[in-house]
Fold these 2 entries.
Entry 1:
Amino acid sequence: MPRTYQSSSSNKATPFFSATLLLWVVSVLFEIVFNKRRELIYIVAGGCFYQIANWVIRVCVSLDPLFVNTSVSLLHSAITSTSVVFILVTQCSITGFKRMFEHTQLVEGTWPWAYQTLCFSCGYFAYDQGDMLHYQLYTGFIPAILMHHLILLICFTFALYRHITINYLILTLICELHSIFLHVRKVRRMAGVRDAKSRVVKVEWILNWIMFVFARLLSHVLITVKLIKDASKFEKGVEWPLAMFAMAGMNLLNAFLGIDLFNAFKKEKNRQQNNQKRHD
């Protein structure tokens, strides 16, 4: 029987997050079927693609739900970060670097393939939320990972429904470059590679910290600064408050992630030093 990772304190979170995910699914299907929003079919395609990847890994590699979930997350990070870099490089060659980040471009425009990429990624977050709820791959009274996914699903679908701030959200997905190394570290540890003296582990930690600072921490701070600077340019409505709420949440989660990363790094270094003392 598959292992579960849920603590007793997180039992109360399950009904809430399951209900919100169900409401989200109903909302998306309603838009596609009844409002004829065929462009949203990429959300369904994304969810199906990552669920199929889940089944393939489960059949061919491992039955461990955590390993399977992490492997699919690694796949998503690789695909999404590659897509985002491709979109940004392509758009930069078309309009130039400076014009790319004009307010009208970020709020009202949609770069080539940006909408489809956002839809596909949205499908992943829905899949991942369902997978974590099904196999109980979370802990805590208010699980940060489930809250993170819920915030993203709300912001992404709102933008996709109204065709606004698509390019802003594409910029936030630059952080997937860092997520690659988070998932690689997790898979590496589950595979039993934990020697802090290993060259592979050292390189992984260096890249992990570089990407955390530049692809996640700095990029999200710059997006927040841009939102504050352009606040007066937004029309009256929920767009700016929702964007600020989302970025405040993301920056807070980034701060907690940085603390967790530092503690994990320190723990691995201390384990290495203790092992060295025993051998001496």
Entry 2:
Amino acid sequence: MEKNENDTISEEYIPYTRPLLFALLLTVEIPSILCTLLILLYFAFHWRLVILKQLQNHVILLLTIVSFLYLILDIPFSMNAFHTGYDLIRTLTFCLWWYWIDYTLLVVSLYLAAIASLQRHILIFHSHWFRLRRLRWMLHYVPLIFALLYPALFYLICIYFYPCEIILNETSAYCMSPCYLKDSILYNIDWILHTFIPVFVIGLANLMLVIRVIRSMKNARQQQRNTWKKQRKLTISLLVVSLLYFLLWFPSTIVGLVNTYIYPSLLDDLPDLYNVYNLYYFVGPLQPFMCFFALPELIKNLQRIIRLRRRVAPVMPFTMHNTRP
């Protein structure tokens, strides 16, 4: 995970980035919550159309819920630390819970984005597979359930049941790290399984999808062009969601890979590279906007409402009064 990398940043370096991070997160926090509520209301009022009949919207709904939990349960405490320079609560119970919810939500969102990147190949090129109930469960529902449950269980065991004794440091301004992070083997397994692999899958799967769509459109006959235009719209809407994860996670993943396995003194020689680890803070706040643009039906409904309100604009009655000199 990336949060433990941030814990290694020197105290001399953190203060320079902390006010900027607080200002940026504060700027997107409220609009992000409003956008999340808008999407959830849309799903609630149109669940038969957009949930039961459109499988591609399942992962968008789950990502929206995960982002909402991140916005209300996790990011406010990080913002407070950026603003004040210390964690508001530093008890053992809270710190372990915070690490668990933070790591769980981040990995769940990464896994959901990676699974969506793979599933959209089936949705676009082999959608008939999902007509069979068994394949629909194996290829669609089971991976999504795994993405929700596995990270929570993994970090529950590692954070709460790893055999060690956590010693509270009363002089520290921040929460103490979980003990398992000191185990180099377990730490590397955690990083490879829960950061490197999903980021790599997201990047590769979406690159292959773009190549397949372009080739298929070139080889399609004239009568198939209209069908591929619809598929192109579906492809673009689905790519929007994964693009955010790739752009914000890829830099820190590459830096972590090089610093851990190739050039161990990279961050010591180039301390400004620590900034790339702050990018993942914005995945949750920006995710609702990506989900919004991945829902063309919602955009059309909003445009329709705006047009109707403009047409039914109130008209002030004009009356003439006779006046006598």
